């Protein structure tokens, strides 16, 4: 009765990334009303600097009330405005803000900017502009789980994963790029480009200049596009500093000016300003055809003129934006440190990172085996037993089991501390379980061990493990709480 799209299951909503959100919704943590509920650590949202935005709003109520500085109302003007090119003042402030984030080493021209309803929409529009259904984009793994929906679902574009490895900190190499390209050829897929997120979601790291040069070499060699999703460019809170693909292109423009027409940036205010609900995203491209087509397409998901007006005023306040960016980074850095320290106390390490709203966490030692089944089993135990929703690496298409993304900026510091206590109890009980298991195998007598949240664990062993024979195959039935 309905379209194929409506009836088929290609949206990606059944990924553990989204399933974890659903479980959280059923039983959300609240310090007083639901202290044993699930803590949401699977959502890359920045709530750390809301007070700064709110105090700006209080000081500038005219902008919210749709008034000019002289008190004259712009209500009618905004209510009637429907130009899909966007408010010129807003676009000017956006390009200035983008330059500011990049230390003013690059100049952006508002003529090359297309507004869209979030980076979600901006990425999809670029797919529609660059690739036909059945054509492909290469994405380094691990990647943001939403891309399966944003890039593929409505466009029919295919994603070819490029597998990066923990052995070099998941960095992009020329051989990985070539391998992914070869894989696409084997699948008879025409590759139209590579899409990167810089800084990376989920790794929380910025790409080096040398990685970006390799990427440009590859794009030149294969005659393809590069999309750089720089949605986290303003959340780089530690060195090394952020380098945008545009900087690298500017350095190489003399070599081949065609490449600048094949590089496109996606940006949004969802992360750096922490306003995902405002749905403010954009495409920046030096390709006139892409800008013109994307602008026409943007009419399917525009930003309301009221939002544009408010944010034009906010971004136009230079003193505020500088202070906000500085303070926001300081808070993010501190927050990340609380997570890293808490995890370290529980014997868990993270990939060294300098950006983003999350850490890429190594839990390989907690897996019962080095498989994605074991990763899924661990994810479920963490979700249901200790009430933390984190995102398993498999949902980010990581090729190595045992990595998880943990977000740190979408909750209060107290909630993060509760989460860290829970994870410590979990890893302690895990190692106690391991030692009980060992003792059950080797002991000839019943053993009694007290541990885990003050509960008494008693293990009974009814056979001689040392010299013989049967492994324990029903361990849990031998343990009574
Ligand atoms: C890399 C990346 N791109 C795009 C998005 C979507 O952002 P928006 O809320 O602006 O649509 C996200 C959100 O998490 C993201 O992490």
CATH architecture of the largest domain: 3-Layer(aba) Sandwich
Instruction: Specify the structural class.
Output: alpha/beta
Overall shape = globular
Largest sheet: 7 strands, mixed
Low-confidence stretches: 450-481
CATH class of the largest domain: Alpha Beta
On the 0-100 scale, what is the average pLDDT?
A: 90
Output the CATH homologous superfamily of the largest domain: Type I PLP-dependent aspartate aminotransferase-like (Major domain)
Termini separation: 53 Å
In terms of DSSP E residues, the strand content is: 5-15%
Distinct ligands, ions and cofactors found in the model: pyridoxal-5'-phosphate
Q: Say what the CATH topology of the largest domain is.
A: Aspartate Aminotransferase, domain 2
- Specify Rg, calculated over alpha carbons: 25 Å
The side-by-side strand order for the widest beta sheet comes to 2-8-7-6-5-3-4
Helix content: 40-55%
* SS elements, strand count: 16
**Number of helices, counting only DSSP H or I runs of 4 residues or more:** 16
């Amino acid at each position: 009765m309905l379209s194929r799209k409506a009836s088929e299951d290609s949206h990606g909503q059944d990924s553990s990334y989204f399933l974890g959100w659903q479980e959280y919704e059923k039983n959300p943590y609240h310090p007083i009303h639901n202290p044993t509920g699930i803590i949401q650590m699977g959502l890359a949202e920045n709530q750390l600097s809301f007070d700064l935005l709110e105090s700006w709003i209080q000081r500038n109520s005219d902008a919210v009330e749709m008034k000019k500085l002289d008190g004259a109302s712009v209500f009618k003007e905004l209510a009637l405005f429907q130009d899909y090119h966007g408010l010129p003042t807003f676009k000017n402030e956006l390009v200035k803000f983008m330059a500011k984030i990049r230390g003013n080493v690059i100049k952006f021209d508002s003529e090359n900017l297309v507004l869209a309803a979030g980076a979600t929409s901006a990425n999809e529009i670029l797919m529609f502009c660059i690739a036909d259904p059945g054509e492909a984009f290469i994405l380094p793994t691990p990647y943001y789980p939403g891309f399966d929906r944003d890039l593929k679902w409505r466009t029919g574009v295919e994603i070819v994963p490029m597998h990066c490895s923990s052995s070099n900190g998941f960095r992009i190499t020329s051989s990985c790029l070539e391998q992914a390209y070869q894989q696409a050829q084997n699948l008879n897929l025409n590759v139209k480009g590579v899409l990167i997120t810089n800084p990376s979601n989920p790794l929380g790291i910025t790409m080096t200049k040398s990685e970006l040069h390799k990427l440009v070499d590859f794009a030149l060699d294969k005659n393809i596009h590069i999309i750089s999703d720089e949605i986290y460019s303003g959340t780089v809170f530690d060195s090394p500093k952020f380098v945008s693909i545009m900087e690298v292109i500017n350095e190489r423009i003399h070599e081949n000016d065609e490449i600048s027409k094949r590089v496109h940036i996606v940006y949004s205010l969802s992360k750096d300003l922490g306003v995902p609900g405002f749905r403010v995203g954009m495409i920046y491209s030096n390709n006139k055809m892409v800008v013109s087509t994307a602008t026409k397409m943007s009419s399917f998901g525009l930003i309301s003129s009221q939002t544009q007006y408010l944010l034009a005023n906010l971004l136009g306040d230079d003193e505020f934006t500088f202070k906000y960016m500085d303070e926001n980074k300081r808070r993010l850095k501190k927050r990340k440190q609380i997570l890293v320290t808490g995890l370290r106390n529980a014997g868990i390490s993270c990939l060294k990172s300098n950006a983003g709203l999350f850490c890429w966490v190594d839990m390989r030692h907690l897996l019962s085996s080095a498989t994605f089944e074991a990763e899924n089993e661990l994810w479920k135990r963490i979700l249901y037993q200790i009430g933390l929703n984190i995102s398993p690496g498999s949902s980010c298409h990581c090729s190595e089991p045992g990595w998880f993304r943990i977000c740190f900026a979408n909750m209060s510091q107290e909630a993060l501390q509760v989460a860290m206590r829970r994870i410590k109890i979990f890893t302690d009980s895990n190692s106690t379980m391991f030692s009980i298991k060992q003792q059950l195998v080797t002991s000839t007598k019943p053993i009694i061990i007290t541990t885990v949240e003050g509960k008494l664990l008693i293990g009974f062993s009814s056979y001689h493990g040392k010299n013989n024979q049967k492994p324990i195959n029903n361990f849990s039935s031998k343990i009574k709480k």
